[in-house]
Amino acid sequence: MDSPIPLHVHDESFCVRAYESGVNNQVTLPALCNFLQEAAGNHARALGLGIHELQDAGFTWMLARLRLEIRRYAAWRETVHLRTWPAGVRGRLTALRDFCMTDDAGETVLLGVSEWLYVEVPAQRIVRLPQAFAALAPAGTPQVPLPEAPAKVPDITAPEWSAAITVRQSDHDFNNHVNNAHYVAWALECLPDVWREARRVREIDIAFRAAARWGDTVTAEAARDTGDSGALLHRIRRDADGTLLAQVRTVWDEDPFLRRRAPVASGPNRTQGETT
């Protein structure tokens, strides 16, 4: 990122491993989300605000929204470098954190912004951020150059594709919650091969609404955004009570060469319908 440098910065590198790659030898979108989550957690811990530190006091973090712009998907065995920092607060409840990922040449491959809520664990309620959070990102803290997002992720009016998914025990993390990256994977699960074989996600905006639990059956739905032919709207609901778990908007790039295998860096569907 260009100067000024944020007051509190965390830098971490990730080498794309085989199980983080897709069939085209490129890092998957859920794996990218895991990189961001890992770096954010490590930085929070370094600041004394990590999950375990907060849980000792009866609190935790909850990721409420994540927006990404993916400029290039790194190849298997390629190393990427992630910088993250607290980017301020919104109102009294929302902490902001930004991300910038670069490759070995210094080229930006991903930009991201995220919103986090401070949750009182016993009551499972969102509470006001402590005043000390504002000091982590004083006035003038740089922000990644992503366009302003709408207040809410648009909802689907008429789903075109859907998939039923059973939540597995292995989907859970140490919080006993389904890991955030799984919701991203679920949102893409229902898309037909004919859509995904010639496209890849360039932008994603996901709002997390409620938590899925082990044994739940959820339905992931998607439809084309009527306002943008290259965008899709997604939602994930719990079947038992209809609870909305996540809303997602994705923007896709046409990529006629996606079927070709991506170059490997040196060093250590289902179909629910047809598209046009």
Descriptive notes:
The protein is mostly beta strands and 276 residues long. It has 2 domains: 1-148, Hotdog Thioesterase (Thiol Ester Dehydrase, Chain A); 150-276, Thiol Ester Dehydrase, Chain A (Roll), CATH 3.10.129. 14% of the residues lie in helices and 35% in strands. It has 4 helices and 11 strands; from the N terminus they run βααββββββααββββ. The chain has helices at 29-46, 51-56, 180-189, 193-196; strands at residues 10-15, 59-70, 79-90, 94-102, 108-120, 125-126, 161-166, 199-208, 217-224, 231-238, 244-254. Strands 1, 2, 3, 4, 5, 6, 7, 8, 9, 10 and 11 form an 11-stranded antiparallel β-sheet that branches. A hairpin with a 5-residue loop joins strand 10 (231-238) and strand 11 (244-254). The longest helix is centred in the first third of the chain and has 18 residues, at 29-46. The chain is globular. The protein starts with 9 loop residues before the first strand and ends in a 22-residue tail after the last strand. Mean pLDDT is 89; it is low at 268-276.
Mean pLDDT: 89
Uncertain regions spanning at least 5 consecutive residues: 268-276
List the helices and strands in order: EHHEEEEEEHHEEEE
Question: How many domains, in number, for the residues?
Answer: 2
Total count of helical runs of at least 4 residues: 4
Calculate Rg over CA atoms. Answer: 19 Å
CATH top level label of the largest domain: Alpha Beta
Instruction: Indicate the multimeric state.
Output: single chain
Classify the beta-strand content into a percent band. Answer: 35-45%
- The first-to-last residue Cα distance is 39 Å
* Count of DSSP strands: 11
The CATH architecture of the largest domain can be named as Roll
- Helical amount among residues, as a percent range? 10-25%
The biggest sheet amounts to: 11 strands, antiparallel
What class do helices, strands and sheet pairing give?
A: mainly beta
Query: CATH H level of the largest domain: which superfamily?
Result: Hotdog Thioesterase
CATH level 3 topology of the largest domain: Thiol Ester Dehydrase, Chain A
What shape does the CA trace take? globular
